[in-house]
Amino acid sequence: MFELMEARADLNEETRAACNSMQSASIGQDTRYTVIHSRSFAKEGRGKEVSDHVLGSMGVDTTGPVELPAHMIAAILTPLNMDSEPLFMITDGNDMAHSDRLSSHPYWGRHFSLAPGGDVFADLILAVMSDVFIGNPMSTFSTLIAQIRYALGFRFTYLHPRVVDGKWETFCEDEECFYNLHNV
Predict the structure, then answer these.
(1) pTM for the complete prediction?
(2) Span 42-61, average pLDDT
(3) Choosing a second label site near 105 at 20 to 30 A (CA), which of 7, 19, 34, 64?
């Protein structure tokens, strides 16, 4: 797809750069990959108390979408046989602790990398076209990605993790639940 987009003569410079960025990450037509969206709200004055309240009111675990723990990622990706495929993180760049932790993780570090380029448009395309998307339900960017993926009929969009009986699970994985929960 990126090769086709890049071949168009009417692409602007940003779009052409986004396509080049995807190709430089070795994402080809047959590449299966996951995208995780890491979003920090602390610099906006929305601290842990606010995120705990919002996530808790949705029924979402208050740490999962924020801290992106390795065992939560494994609980989502292993049943899909995606745990040994490339794992990219798109981020607002405000808190790199989660990417640092995953890149140095004994298992995920072999598959993990930050999305190349750091361009919002490239991040959007990368996430929308991914085989699996894991996002933060408090983020308008994550919810936009989820909406586009649902509109395109893509499955495996995860924004709502929780712990039940000591194990990570996700809920509200379908379009109707998503729109009801987010009042969209």
Answers:
(1) 0.84
(2) 82
(3) 19
